[in-house]
Structure formats: C-alpha cells, structure tokens
Specification:
With about 140 residues, the protein is α+β, with helices and mostly antiparallel strands. It is built from 4 helices and 7 strands; from the N terminus they run ααββαβββαββ. The strands form 2 sheets. It has a 5-stranded antiparallel sheet with strand order 5-4-3-6-7. A hairpin with a 5-residue loop joins β1 and β2. It is elongated and about 105 Å long.
Amino acid sequence: MSRNQLTFKKKELAKKQQQKKKEKQERRELNKSSNNKGKSLEEMFAYVDEFGNISDTPPTQPYKFKEEDLIRPADIEEEYLYGKVSYYNEDGHYGFIRDNLSRETVYFNDKLAGMVLAVNQKVKYKYIRTKQGNQVSEIELQR
C-alpha cells in the first residue's frame, strides 16, 4: 500500500489558505474596532452656516433673514416675452416663435394665436410647457 504523499504544491496551497484566513480575521477585527455605530445623536449632527460651510459645532448666533430672501422671484408665466416668428407653414397653419433673449423656440398655430402671423413678424407672448414642448398660450402683435 502506498501512503498519501504531501507534495510541495499541496503544502503551498495549504499555507496560502491559512494566510488568507488570517488576513480575513485581521480585517474583521479592524472593522469592528473602527466601527462608528452606536454614537450618540449629538455626535452625528452636522451644522451648516449661512455660507454653506459644514461644521461640527452649532452656530453662535441665529441667521437673520434679509428682506431680499423673503421676496419671491417673478413667475415666468406672469411676464410677457418678446420674440419673432422664425418659421411659418401656410399649408399646416402652424409655426415657431424664437425668443429674443434665450433664443428658445415656441410652437403656435392659427387657432392658438387667434390670428394669422407671418415670418419675421415681431410678437409679445406667453407660453406654457406641454408634453410636446413649449406652446403659446397668449399672443399679441408688437408694434
């Protein structure tokens, strides 16, 4: 009968497995020792000052609101925009208005506009956002 032979390769594999187990156990103990769980609630708080900086200490004085902070910005739907008819399809009775400032285009048709417009005609308008894109809600000719 032959006996089980321990070859060099088998010994090296066994050593590597032992080394991996040992390294894994050391990592596990290191993670347990540097665990942040169980801190008190006050230790986990972070404070933000008026400039957006984060700190661990609470602010010494409360923030005083300025009058400008309380004013709401003007709603874009309440303002008229100015533009020019950049495209008009006479067969389909629709076209696009290009905004003077943002260069954004807005769709219109004769029913929405309530009038027939021509290319390069200056207009004053309001628009709404729809699933298909921006669409004219009110329109007036600009003189």
